Amino acid sequence: MTSEDTLDALVDALVRSTFQVTGVLTRIGAENDLSLTQLRVFGILRDRRPRVTELAAYLGLDKSTMSGLIDRAERRGLLARDRNPHDGRAVDVFLTPAGRDLTQRLYVEVRDALAPELSRLRPEQRVQLLRLLEPLLDPAAAR
Amino acid sequence: MTSEDTLDALVDALVRSTFQVTGVLTRIGAENDLSLTQLRVFGILRDRRPRVTELAAYLGLDKSTMSGLIDRAERRGLLARDRNPHDGRAVDVFLTPAGRDLTQRLYVEVRDALAPELSRLRPEQRVQLLRLLEPLLDPAAAR
DNA sequence: TATTGTTATACTCTATAACTATA
DNA sequence: TATAGTTATAGAGTATAACAATA
Q: What is the pLDDT of residues B99-118, one digit of tens each?
């Protein structure tokens, strides 16, 4: 197998595993009335308190799209807005306690859903996979 | 690091790499006026000629959603419908030559977009990653 | 003037329900 | 009766353009 073939096969495997994980995330989201994007929003807010524009940039979305996403989650009491104390134009976004609880529950659900697949690997293979994925994760890309 | 910690870190890395690859696919799709779902449709049709319901099942979507997706792509001349010769109720879906060309171009774009990230791994590491991803890919899950 | 955020608008994606045609 | 597909409807996700408020 040439190095070119490996690249093709690897891209294929990467795309397929992406769709597989996306399927799990989409299902768990749907069971909690959350879209994949909302799931991402909650993941980001887990340890950050960004302004609207920052959040949109993380997700690669327009700020107007962000407004709608925040509106709907805010209406459900899962997250909240607050004026940024240092810049009167900016609005900070953060999880409410209810949103934080939900995020924690979602995280456990995702882990439990992926664990069976990952158990097909031996423990030392799991460590290996982790080591191989890490270099691929662009620090600029948000979760 | 305990095995429990590895699982947590691995799930995290897997989800993050999923969003990263999804970002690439979404961008390339958008540049060609295609949604992520349309991209998947084209990937599936690349080597299959399923009926509407089969396609919907692959994607985990309702058949009515499928009708709309097919409509829009058909209007653009990228795919076509045909009566299934063995079952008068069923409709087969397949790529037109234009759709096939586009799919091929998209594939190359995706590979070229992911190649730089993958080049952070040494050749033998890429082979290793491929070997580790393969057991995770459920044959039941479509691309 | 430039930036931050919201709103109006239009289109795609999605599911549910109701329908037609075929098995 | 059951299955395959379409259509009507409604809501979420998305971007573009126009706007108000602040820097």
A: 999 999 999 999 999 999 99
Max CA pair span of chain B: 59
The A 49-68 residues near strand C by Cβ under 7 Å are: 51-54, 63-64, 66-68
* Region class of B60: left (phi > 0), else alpha (psi between -120 and 50), else beta: left
Q: d(Cα A108, Cα B115) in Å, to the nearest integer? A: 32
CB atoms closer than 10 angstroms to residue B88 = 8
Residues sharing a CB contact under 8 Å with residue B127, sequence separation 6 or more, in sequence order: A1, A6
A111 interaction partners in chain B (CB closer than 8 Å): 7-8, 11
Q: Which helix (H) or strand (E) holds B134?
A: none
Q: What is the pLDDT of residues B127-141, one digit of tens each?
A: 999 999 999 996 544
Question: Amino acid identity of B15?
Answer: V
Element (H, E) at A87: none
From the list A19, A44, A25, the residue with the least C-alpha distance to B21 is A19
The DSSP result for B106-126, as a single string, is: HHHHHHHHHHHHHTTS-HHHH
Query: Which tokens belong to A6?
Result: 């490996």
What's chain A's length in residues? Answer: 143
